[in-house]
Amino acid sequence: MVEVKKKDSESAESLIRRFTKRVQSSGILLQAKKGRYYSIKKSKLEKKGDAARRTLIKDKKELLRKIGKLDDFIDPRRPNKRGTIKKLLQARIKK
Questions:
Q1: What is the pTM for the complete model shown?
Q2: Secondary structure letter of residue 76 according to DSSP
């Protein structure tokens, strides 16, 4: 806990300035900022399960794409993910 008492002929601005310097030097502000976005870490089993789920979904999509049930689409947020837009448009024109 940081405590600052006003000196006899001290202005409010200098008192605030002294207080902020003490808070910064004590490290309280850094601790508060570090704890702001704390997230609980996943266990190894949860990480492996998530990775297995992602690979399963990826494999299913690839299989559907190969047999023609899933068309390639252009994601507007990530246009270069499955190739350039120009190549994808050319492939659609040829179909």
A1: 0.41
A2: T
The answer to whether 89 and 72 have CB atoms below 8 angstroms apart is no
Tell me the CA end-to-end span of the chain in Å, nearest whole number.
71
Q: What is the predicted pLDDT for the residue at 65?
A: 81
- What stretches of 30-90 adopt beta strand conformation (E)? none
Q: How many Cα atoms within 13 Å fall on the side-chain side of residue 84?
A: 3
- The residue written with tokens 């492939």 in the block is 91
Give the per-residue pLDDT at 66.
85
CA 82/CA 61 separation, integer angstroms: 13
Cα gap 3→17, rounded to integer Å: 13
Q: How far apart are CA 80 and CA 88, in angstroms?
A: 10
Distance (Å, whole) CA 8 – CA 6: 7
